[in-house]
């Protein structure tokens, strides 16, 4: 199994197109960082227009590396699934298209092992992409913008997180995001089994994610309890929960606290269930499949 | 002689289409077994079933005395295959391709051994070039080198000479003969070109529309004394009735719309001719041949295609 995984990783990282995603993420992050570096105040004024009339807002202090990383994650974690689909959607369909799938399947390894190795390689790619994103979005922002307490606004409430209470939240958020994006990888992986050309599963994955995300974000009461809780896209952004702290009676955030950990764990459970279902279905279908490519 | 492959009543249906229909054959140890048929005859589907790429609708496959369905992994450890086009990872070098598949074979194979393998197929000098720069013939040879990395007892080559130039075809042919004679491997090689198979195979199977037409040693099938007799008469039905009431019906191999094909020894032809004359059969055409290609065409639907085309 380890050898198979090594082979799959070797193939992924030997392909020039794998690095397009890393390049795209770097470009997007640098563009956001440059924009915020030169015109961050305007951006924050726009963001906090509701409260800036009532409070003095120290924009220079607020605009620090932690906040910039938060803004970047908020923006990019919606786009990154598209980059994940590029690799995971290619896992089986790309091999079928190249004609190499029949070579793989005639080797003395079980189809289940082959599938598990391919999915594990897609997950590792996803995690590496996130680590790359963390490196640029968090550490580069800390370097460019310095560090300070992080102030985030939600529902007209300002929440101040102490600077020494932030790093663990980012680690948890990136960990959660890797599970969320692995769900997209698992979906693309499943669709990849049905196709003999990677364009189909990549486009299908992106379309499904877009449609379900729109459905998850729509404020229609009918869907709120009937559909949304069961969509994996409704749980993909639960990483934000790690930045929402409990407050004491004075309204101050309690260090090391998370406002609603059970909700985050519930969302994590939903995503893990989806991953299991997608991967198990992919293995089941692939084991039954006639390789005609 | 021990049988290496034993296929019994194998069938594969794709919806209504019977790609392989109740096919049975045996490949013995040391055979170069020619698997012959027109395009779409069911060769590739059968080979894919031998390699577990396609699941049979019905039937049994035993390789090395083991059931392919239950002991797939053990069997595939001793099998090497090239299936149709030599598709490989074009963005990797020849050496990277072969070493990757070597890892998957389950055995530890040294770099030296891999280079020897590439040398055997004449690719040592280009081992570190990307496969996308290889010619079709080079890719095919790399495919064969990959098939041989785990020193398999059984080598399955599906249409290995497709698209190759004459030199490439000769190289593959020599390699197959080398594998059989010097390395004592059993080889199954499929082709739609009888001229290719008759030069290398000692036994062959001819399939058409998924069914077995004939199986035997090449010597049996290509006995110089054995002739193919093509007979066309004025009244086909009447001739058929006359033949069916005589011992000559045993020599009848196949009949198309207006043509009978008989297989008989050269010395029997005059007697058969006399029989037709004495029974008042009005003969339009009476031709005898001993070409294996003609025999092949006479047995398969290719002859029908030729007929339609010429009509």
Structural description of this entry:
The complex is a heterodimer of chains A (293) and B (311). Chain A has 293 residues and is mainly alpha-helical. Chain A has one domain. Chain A is built from 12 helices and 2 strands, in the order ααααααααββαααα. Chain A has a two-stranded antiparallel ribbon. In chain A, a hairpin with a 2-residue loop joins strand 1 (150-154) and strand 2 (157-161). In chain A, helix 1 (2-14) packs across helix 8. Mean pLDDT of chain B is 84; it is low at 305-311. In chain B, 35% of the residues lie in helices and 30% in strands. The N and C termini of chain B lie far apart (47 Å). Chain B is an alpha/beta fold. Chain B contains 12 helices and 14 strands.
Labels describing this entry:
heterodimer; A: 293 residues; mainly alpha; two-stranded antiparallel sheet; 12 helices; 67% helix; elongated; B: 311 residues; alpha/beta; 6-stranded mixed beta sheet; 4-stranded antiparallel beta sheet
Taking the alpha carbons of the first and last residues of chain A, their distance comes to: 25 Å
Helix content of chain A: 55-70%
Number of domains of chain A: 1
Average pLDDT confidence of chain B is 84
Counting DSSP E segments of at least 2 residues, the number of strands of chain A comes to 2
Our Rg estimate of chain A from Cα atoms comes to 21 Å
- Structural class of chain B, by secondary structure, is alpha/beta
SSE series of chain B: EEEHEEHEHHHEHEHEEHEHEEHEHH
What is the string of SSEs of chain A from the N terminus onward?
HHHHHHHHEEHHHH
Structural class label of chain A: mainly alpha
**Runs of chain B with pLDDT <50, length 5+?**
305-311
Give the overall silhouette of chain A: elongated
| Biggest chain-to-chain interface with counts | A-B, 25 and 31 residues
Biggest pleated-sheet summary of chain B: 6 strands, mixed
């Amino acid at each position: 199994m380890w050898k198979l995984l090594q082979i799959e990783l070797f193939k992924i990282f030997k392909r020039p197109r794998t690095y397009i995603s890393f390049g795209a993420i770097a470009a997007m992050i640098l563009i956001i960082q440059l924009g915020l570096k030169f015109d961050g105040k305007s951006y924050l004024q726009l963001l906090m227009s509701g409260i800036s009339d009532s409070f003095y807002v120290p924009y220079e202090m607020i605009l620090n590396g932690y906040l910039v990383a938060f803004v970047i994650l908020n923006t990019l974690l919606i786009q990154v699934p598209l980059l994940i689909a590029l690799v995971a959607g290619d896992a089986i369909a790309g091999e079928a298209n190249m004609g190499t799938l029949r070579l793989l399947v005639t080797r003395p390894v079980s189809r289940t092992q082959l599938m598990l190795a391919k999915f594990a390689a897609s997950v590792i790619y996803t995690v590496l992409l996130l680590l790359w994103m963390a490196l640029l979005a968090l550490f580069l922002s800390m370097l460019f913008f310095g560090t300070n307490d992080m102030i985030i606004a939600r529902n007209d409430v300002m929440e101040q997180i102490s600077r020494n209470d932030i790093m663990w939240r980012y680690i948890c958020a990136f960990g959660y995001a890797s599970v969320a994006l692995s769900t997209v990888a698992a979906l693309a992986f499943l669709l990849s089994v049905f196709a003999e050309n990677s364009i189909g599963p990549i486009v299908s994955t992106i379309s499904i994610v877009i449609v379900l995300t729109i459905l998850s974000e729509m404020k229609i009461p009918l869907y709120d309890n009937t559909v949304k809780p069961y969509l994996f896209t409704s749980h993909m952004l639960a990483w934000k929960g790690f930045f929402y702290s409990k407050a004491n009676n004075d309204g101050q955030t309690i260090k090391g606290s998370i406002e609603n950990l059970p909700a985050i764990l519930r969302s994590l459970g939903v995503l893990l269930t989806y991953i299991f279902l997608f991967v198990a279905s992919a293995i089941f279908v692939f084991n039954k499949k006639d390789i005609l490519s | 002689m021990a049988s290496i492959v034993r296929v019994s009543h194998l069938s594969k249906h794709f919806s209504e289409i019977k790609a392989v229909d109740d096919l049975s054959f045996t490949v013995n140890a040391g055979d170069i077994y020619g698997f012959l048929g027109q395009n779409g005859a069911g060769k590739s589907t059968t080979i894919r079933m031998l390699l577990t790429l396609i699941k049979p609708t019905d039937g049994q496959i035993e390789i090395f005395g083991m059931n392919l369905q239950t002991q797939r992994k053990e069997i595939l450890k001793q099998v090497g295959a090239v299936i149709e086009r030599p598709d490989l990872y074009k963005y990797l070098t020849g050496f990277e391709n072969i070493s990757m598949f070597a890892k998957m074979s389950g055995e530890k194979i040294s770099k030296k051994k891999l280079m020897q393998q590439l040398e055997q197929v004449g690719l040592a000098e280009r081992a570190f070039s990307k496969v996308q720069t290889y010619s079709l013939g080079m890719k095919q040879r790399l495919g064969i080198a990959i098939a041989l990395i785990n020193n398999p007892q059984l080598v399955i080559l599906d249409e290995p000479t497709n698209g190759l130039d004459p030199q490439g075809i000769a190289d593959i042919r020599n390699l197959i003969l080398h594998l059989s004679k010097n390395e004592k491997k059993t080889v199954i090689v499929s082709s739609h070109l009888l001229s290719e198979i008759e030069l290398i195979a000692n036994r062959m199977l001819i399939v058409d529309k998924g069914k077995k037409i004939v199986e035997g040693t090449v010597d049996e099938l290509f006995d110089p004394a054995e002739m193919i007799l093509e007979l066309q008469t004025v009244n086909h039905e009447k001739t058929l009735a006359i033949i069916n009431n005589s011992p000559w019906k045993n020599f009848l191999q196949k009949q198309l719309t207006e043509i009978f094909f008989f297989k008989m020894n050269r010395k029997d032809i005059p007697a058969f001719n006399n029989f037709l004359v004495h029974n008042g059969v009005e003969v339009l055409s009476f031709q005898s041949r001993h070409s294996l290609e003609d025999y092949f065409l006479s047995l398969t639907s290719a002859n029908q295609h030729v007929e339609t085309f010429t009509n």
